[in-house]
What does this fold into?
Amino acid sequence: MNGHYKFVNTPLPYAFEAMEPYIDKKAMYLHHDKHLQTYIDNLNRTLSNHPELQNWTLEQLIINAPCLPKEIRSDIKNNGGGVFNHQFYFFQSCQSGFSAACRDSGASHGKCIWQLSVVSQSVQRGRIIRVWLRLCMACG
It folds into this structure.
């Protein structure tokens, strides 16, 4: 995904079935091609009327949401948060797919603990509304 507006849903770097048996192909497809795409479309729609925000990164939008105009604040938090969470889920916590990352490459508890600590620090600062922790906790 590009760093700022107009946000684009990029293809997964692994097959939809790469998470099986933990997450089935249909669920991965729905979350990537439907849920994430809806969040991206809604975020782009909101930003289309605010050119002053179009060069902001996703992280800048989420972190500064309380300072944004009241009429778009919830849209930015909800849709920006949805994009961030899905991107984290698909690309950060499982870059090469759950089964490949955790079974084949010998991912260690240390890697997962580091990812969990980064997420928990972000949550404590109130910068992320929801996060995906389940996959990292299953590694190792």
About this structure: The CA atoms of residues 56 and 138 lie 34 Å apart.
